[in-house]
Amino acid sequence: MLFKISMSNIRKSIKDYTVYFFTLIIGVAIFYVFNAIETQTAFLKMNEDQREMINILIKAIAGVSVFVAVVLGLLIVYASRFLMKRRNKEFALYMMLGMSKWKISLLLLCETVIIGVGSLFVGLLIGIGLSQVMSAVVANLFEADMNSYRFTVSASAILKTILYFSIMYVVVIIRSGFVISKCRLITLMQSGKRSEKITMKNPWVCVIVFILSAAVLGYAYYMVGWDYLRISGNKLVTAIIMGAVSTFFIFWSVAGMLLRVIMSMKGVYNKGLNSFTFRQISSKVNTTVASMTVICLMLFLTICTLSTAFVIRNSLNRQVQEFYPVDMYAEFGRTTSAETPEEAKNFTEKPLYTSLKDEYEKKGLDLYEEFGEYCDFHNYADPNFTFNTFLSEAKDELKKELPSVISTDDDYWLEIIKLSDYNKLMKLYGLKTLDINDNEYVLCASFGGMMGFYDEILKDKAEINVFGNTLVPHFNKTYKGFIRPAVQPINGGLFIVPDSAVDENAACDNIIVGNLKASDAKEKQKLEEKFREKWGNVMGNLEGEKGIGYSEYMSSRREEANSTVGLSAMVTFLGLYIGFIFLVSCGAILALKELSESSDSVPRYTMLRKIGAEEKEITKSLFIQSGIFFLLPLLLACLHAFVGMKFGMFAISMIVTGGMLKPILFTAAVVVLIYGGYFLLTFLGSKAITKEQK
Asked: Is 337 a residue whose pLDDT tops 60?
């Protein structure tokens, strides 16, 4: 009997359950898709490094899934409140007919189970289909072979999804039973007669609060978006708190001013149903200030998360080719603890007594055996040419502007390279060579945080003295480039000088870069492993002298690419996972609130029809109400995101160099699809609800 009544209730209230059911299906599908990655990628052909990255990604997703489950659980509980409120009169009728609260709770239990099973079934079906697409995405990111891939269903992901959502439904059932046990018949019967009271706030107070909030928000924007070079951890936290608090008071003041402003515009206020429409909007915004604030901040996080994730993903994939144009890179050099003039003199008087080639020959090995083409060169250092001497008067300003980079009075020697070595290297990289005069130098860097300050120094034609040679800049700005291959633009500055200006006794690092003697990936890996084995044999027994120690480093494009792909995949998937859930939550909360308001306002729409309002005018009023209700938090969130992304791009400037246009367009498409989908469902649902008593 209870099952029949439950099914009947669900059929009759299908339009009320649309948003709820839609949200559950999306939640289940997203949850399954991301938790099924382990099974979906098990059949992809990957190397050991890529498989390790996949394992790290899976662990990260498992951890984030707990957070996602909490968010979805709170969302489901919130949605159940709307459905309970819609059925107050129905519950009152059951009680009048003699049904006990216990049986009403059992009825709700039955309905929850039916909806839960249905949403799980449909959501899992959609998730299983989408997870096959996710496999192709993973294979594309990791450049994996899909020849042995086959259609799979992840039993572990299904069990995890059922477990998590079952816990959520149990919480909903317990809460619904508790609410029913506390209900009184008179309260249920009169629920439809209660409506939100429009609070007319003092307009001058609202104006003052709005101006102050906008000023505080503007200052927070300035700190984060334009003065980010000076921002510290404490200042960043302060700016975030200022932004969140001012967001709340902006919605609070707008809620108080909106109706007053529209009422002062007689031509607009008295046109059609505008007086009714804007009173409805004012009532909704007045009663949802806290919700609007939370949704605005969640949308802001969603936009920033999705945009940043795809900026990083696109940039890292491109930067492997741009900043690591060869197969291998190895560096062997001497470090110095020279703190006194005597130790500095010792550095230049004692030449680098060995080189990579010499050390290999001592072991009877050929340094160049695995390379098809290579460039073997040194960099240099003049103890009298330091960071402080180059910056001179600009150092104090730089310390203010870049406290994270120039935070102490520590000094260090600047890197120098001969023009001939630089040009040989550029030919190997396939990049542009340089031609400078004997009295000139070029300052080369790629790290954006330093290039701007170097430009300020170079525009004044700053002279340098290297090994007793006075040189002037060839360019009046920083030349963008690098000598060491890497996947990030991390060159903080090096000086390209004429060969005649260099003292060979001041050689620091012996660097070799090149391409291996193979075109096939597997053969390249074998040669790389052979080179690594020889490298370890040679470098394992080196010892330095007093005041002069030795360091070594080696990397390959293959390992850097694998590491980059792993980071790119993790950022992309976690960004999508969190972004989708936040968007679903924002859309569902606004939709349920709007549908709840429409349900309470049914008598008002009935009255409008009785006094002669046309159906198209009522539909237009509903569209405007839903549109403004969804648009207000989104507009402010976009403004927050614009400033937030300015700071975000600075914060990740050492990792990426990519543009924002494509990621922003993709994020906009996702927001329109999910958030816009909830708006459309809300408008259609409100339209159906307000026709109930037509």
From this structure: no
